[in-house]
Design goal:
Structural class: mainly alpha
Number of helices: 4
CATH class of the largest domain: Mainly Alpha
Shape: flat
CATH topology of the largest domain: Four Helix Bundle (Hemerythrin (Met), subunit A)
Order of helices and strands: HHHH
Distance between the termini: 49 Å
Strand content: under 5%
Radius of gyration: 20 Å
Largest sheet: none
CATH superfamily of the largest domain: DksA, coiled-coil domain
Number of domains: 2
CATH architecture of the largest domain: Up-down Bundle
């Protein structure tokens, strides 16, 4: 991977990180806003469900933020773009589309096939 591609991917990662942090702040502000105006139990239940979904979304975003931070660390350490399974270089187009990936497409495909086979085996053993 050339330096231009690496810097482009780093900008993508930094943009994702900024977006997540901004969304987190918005979510926290929304969750901490007063609910005194809610009088109807149905409305209160709806608001609580919305808060629950917002917290789930925030949790998912926290996991993505961790992956982004890990990818940025790998860039700084000079380890970015190397498959953690086979040690081969990950295709730059794959990295641009999924900059947090740690596996080349071949290893990721093999992993997904193994996971699917394990799911099928679990379903068969439950029957």
């Amino acid at each position: 991977m050339n330096e231009k591609d690496l810097q482009e991917i780093k900008r993508i990662l930094l943009s994702i990180r900024e977006k997540i942090i901004s969304q987190r702040e918005d979510s926290l502000n929304q969750l901490s806003s007063p609910r005194d105006e809610v009088v109807d139990e149905g409305e209160r239940a709806f608001m609580e469900e919305a808060d629950y979904l917002e917290m789930r979304f925030t949790s998912r975003e926290d996991r993505l933020l961790k992956k982004v931070e890990d990818a940025l660390k790998r860039i700084e350490e000079g380890r970015y773009g190397i498959c953690e399974i086979c040690g081969e270089e990950i295709d730059v187009n794959r990295l641009k589309l999924r900059p947090v990936t740690t596996m080349c497409i071949k290893c990721k495909t093999e992993q997904e096939k193994k996971e699917e086979l394990e799911k099928k085996l679990k379903r068969k053993t439950r029957l």
